[in-house]
């Protein structure tokens, strides 16, 4: 009898083990991954996938220059293995086009940020360095202007050359190929909090398709993060509307969409994706004269900039130098502390309110 019970017990254990092996996927939580080329996509994905089975990774190192980033072999492997790959779609990641040829879009949802919202083209405003003109202007004195980050550009409400894009759950097509001649798309769409909210919602839609079991949690996360952005957007409007009409950024200008949303005119040294590292004497003189003539008390530099152009303008005008953050990348310290897009917009609120 004992022998029978022993045999029965053994059969039961073997049967149970076989059942568990055959149904392992049902009992194990499946893990998913999101890979983003830069901070905005990483932050938005991190927010909507919080406490789910989806992990997030940013390819560009914190504090690094996004324009000069080149993917490592491991980065390429991570992209191909990802369940969602997010990239900007502008000058900062033209290398992506080649990588996408080898990405299985049946497995990897590809999200292109400039396809998720309406966009505008780059522009060169009065006093700003024109790259074509700059090529023939090497005899001028220059001020060094080094950056560890990629930035944005224009503002012109009447020149609101918008392009609407359909959001699909997989690959997103853009009407404007990076190799196409003519004006380039201003890629820094997230600098407008209103557009950032649209992007968050659409990334959440894709995340819900990846981890269907966690859809309710993802939707809840997205709703909460959109509410946070909406609040800082409201606070920014209260600080800017009717109080600030123009800003001077003695640096690159990655705030075209920000300026458009808040109705701001601006003067700057370079467009946001300019590859120039020196400002001509003509540009410096323009910025100095503008600050003096308009009695401007504060000017701005962007994150990860050495701020030398702003320092030069400040020295001649007495204007205070403050930082505006485009949120294209963050310092290693900020990254380790888990700083968010909302945190960076709150810093901008403080700088603009000062």
Structure description:
- The chain has two domains: 29-120 and 161-231, Rossmann fold, CATH 3.40.50; 131-158 and 243-353, Nitrogenase molybdenum iron protein domain (Rossmann fold, 3-Layer(aba) Sandwich), CATH 3.40.50.1980.
- Helix content is 41%, strand content 14%.
- It has helices at 2-22, 24-27, 39-48, 73-81, 96-100, 131-134, 193-210, 215-240, 256-262, 281-293, 308-317, 332-336, 341-353, and strands spanning 32-36, 54-58, 84-87, 109-112, 142-144, 246-253, 265-271, 278-280, 298-302, 320-324.
- Helix 3 (39-48) links the parallel strand 1 and strand 2.
- The longest helix is centred in the middle third of the chain and has 26 residues, at 215-240.
- The chain is elongated and about 105 Å long.
- It starts with a helix and ends with a helix.
What CATH architecture label of the largest domain applies? 3-Layer(aba) Sandwich
Tell me the domain tally: 2
The CATH H-level homologous superfamily of the largest domain: Nitrogenase molybdenum iron protein domain
- Average pLDDT, rounded to a whole number, is 85
The total of helices stands at 13
Report the sheet-strand fraction: 5-15%
Instruction: Please identify the top-level CATH class of the largest domain.
Output: Alpha Beta
Radius of gyration: 24 Å
Measured between the Cα atoms of the first and last residue, the distance is: 87 Å
Q: What summary fits the major beta sheet? A: 4 strands, parallel
Give the helix/strand class: alpha/beta
Low-confidence stretches: 134-180
Helix % is: 40-55%
Number of DSSP-assigned strands: 10
Order of helices and strands: HHEHEHEHEHEHHEHEEHEHEHH
| CA-based shape | elongated
Lateral arrangement of strands in the main beta sheet: 2-1-3-4
The CATH topology of the largest domain is given as: Rossmann fold
